[in-house]
Amino acid sequence: MPDSPDTNAAVWKSDEQISAWISTAADRERRYAYPRRLLAELLPFGQADEFTFVDLGAGTGAASSAVLERYPAARAILADFSPQMMEQGASALAPHAGRYQYVEFDLASGDWPGAIPATVDAVISSLCVHHLRDERKRELFGEIVGRLAPGGWYLNFDPVTAPDPVAEAEWQRVNDRRDPVAASKRANRTAEEQLRYENHTRYMIPLAPQVSWLRAAGFEGVDVYWKELDYVIYGGRRPAA
Ligand SMILES: C[S@@+](CC[C@H](N)C(=O)[O-])C[C@H]1O[C@@H](n2cnc3c(N)ncnc32)[C@H](O)[C@@H]1O
What we know:
Layout: H1 8-12, H2 15-23, H3 25-31, H4 33-42, E1 52-56, H5 62-70, E2 75-80, H6 83-92, E3 100-104, E4 120-126, H7 134-147, E5 148-159, H8 165-178, H9 182-187, H10 191-201, H11 207-217, E6 220-228, E7 231-237
Parallel strand pairs: 1-2, 1-4, 2-3, 4-5
Antiparallel strand pairs: 5-7, 6-7
Helix pairs in contact: 4-5, 7-11
């Protein structure tokens, strides 16, 4: 973990940092197209089912969009604490107008806003849980299982750290081969890029404890449903009875 102070709220509420995030969105979404689609597929609803899901740390709604596109009768509640991301999301989500609402929610606290119903059909999160301290990750999983309808699924798409240095080197070798300028970018980060990198990795941890916290919270069907190097989709469902 970097020694520097926790900058998460400052980063996600900074106009400059949000502009940087938005400017790289198209390239990122090309790379994430498959896991985005898979996460939507993993929700076991029929094409025409009406259901409500919550997207925690929803940002501009990239994960929600994949679900809303896959299930035309679904409704989304997008929770985030960044006014800038929510404002950007309003235009990104324009094709789904009337089927979604944003609610302000700081996931670092356990104070779920009243606008999120006591029971929802599914919960998703993407690229956000790694920004929470371990204790909050663990607590959040318990809060999610408590919000889900019986049989309701939670799925999380997120980066993880490697279980050991050998795996870490292997992941880096492959990622560097795919992006020939990655090593030089790593060695020559601007101060702003370094701040973003430290914020990205500060609370990122290996996969294994996260999966075990889901089981401990009471989820069943817990699995790593997809994994490619440092990116994973894991999840489980609230027992049906
Ligand atoms: C990397 S972006 C991912 C956005 C979106 N889920 C996606 O997949 O594109 C991380 C998002 O998590 C949100 N976030 C980070 N920490 C948060 C917190 N403590 N409470 C609520 N949202 C948070 C940020 O505002 C940002 O929108």
